[in-house]
């Protein structure tokens, strides 16, 4: 055989082998998970441990009558700025499908007293605990709701759930 024939046979062998090597088994399905990370050098909000956030928390009855419900969640705010803004992004609605718990009242305890949070209205909070050139402080977030009133013979009993969505923003101060 001549050199050209050897080259042709070798080339065809490589071509067919490459196709076999790249063919994935038909029973495999590739999947991709999109991951994100947010690094914010101006503001960080967490539980007091400094590394996690709340997932599901229980709002408990204040007494045996189960007419008022409340919980307090400590939140830690680290910031380079002396102040930050806190806003309810949407009203807190706790529902069981038939009823909604009325009179949701959300407040945050600050060095200047308890401040109410309202949907769409930013509440400015001044930090008082400075650590070097940064601020690092724990606040109590207070959540209070009333039990619904029974109507149309439907029981108010059951599990109620809802989302508390808040927006934390740094306040930029001029030089």
Question: How does this structure look, described?
Answer:
This protein is mainly beta. The chain has a single domain, classed as Immunoglobulin-like (Sandwich), CATH 2.60.40. The chain has one helix at 3-22; strands at 43-46, 60-61, 68-79, 83-88, 94-95, 100-101, 105-110, 113-117, 123-126, 130-131, 134-146, 166-170. Strands 1, 2, 3, 7, 8, 10 and 11 form a seven-stranded antiparallel sheet that branches. Strands 9-4-12 form a three-stranded antiparallel sheet, with no helix packed on it. The protein has a two-stranded antiparallel ribbon with strand order 5-6. Strand 2 and strand 3 form a beta hairpin. The relative contact order is 0.21. The model has no long low-confidence stretch (mean pLDDT 84).
Task: Quickly give the structural class.
Answer: mainly beta
Largest beta-sheet characterization: 7 strands, antiparallel
- Compute the number of helices: 1
Radius of gyration: 29 Å
Overall pLDDT metric: 84
Give me the CATH architecture, please. Answer: Sandwich
The residue ranges in which pLDDT falls below 50 over 5 or more consecutive positions are: none
Helix content: 10-25%
Measured by DSSP, the beta-strand proportion falls in 35-45%
User: What would CATH call the class?
Assistant: Mainly Beta
Please tag this protein with its features.
mainly beta, Immunoglobulin-like, 7-stranded antiparallel beta sheet, 3-stranded antiparallel beta sheet, flat, signal, CS1 type fimbrial major subunit
List the helices and strands and how they pair.
Layout (H helix, E strand, L loop, with lengths): L2 H20 L20 E4 L13 E2 L6 E12 L3 E6 L5 E2 L4 E2 L3 E6 L2 E5 L5 E4 L3 E2 L2 E13 L19 E5 L5
Antiparallel strand pairs: 1-3, 2-3, 3-11, 4-9, 4-12, 5-6, 7-8, 7-11, 10-11
Protein name: CS1 type fimbrial major subunit
Keywords: Signal
């Amino acid at each position: 055989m001549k050199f050209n024939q050897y080259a042709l046979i070798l080339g065809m062998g490589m071509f067919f082998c490459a196709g076999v090597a790249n063919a994935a088994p038909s029973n495999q399905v590739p999947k991709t998970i999109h991951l994100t990370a947010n690094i914010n050098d101006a503001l960080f909000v967490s539980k007091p441990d400094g590394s996690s956030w709340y997932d599901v928390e229980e709002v408990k009855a204040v007494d045996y009558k189960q007419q008022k419900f409340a919980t307090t969640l400590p939140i830690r705010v680290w910031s380079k700025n002396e102040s930050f803004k806190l806003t309810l992004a949407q009203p807190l609605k706790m529902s069981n499908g038939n009823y909604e718990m009325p009179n949701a009242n959300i407040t945050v305890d600050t060095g200047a007293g308890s401040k109410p949070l309202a949907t769409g209205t930013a509440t400015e909070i001044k930090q008082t605990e400075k650590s070097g050139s940064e601020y690092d402080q724990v606040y109590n977030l207070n959540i209070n709701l009333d039990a619904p009133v029974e109507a149309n013979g439907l029981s108010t009993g059951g599990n109620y759930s809802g989302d508390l969505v808040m927006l934390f923003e740094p306040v930029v101060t001029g030089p």
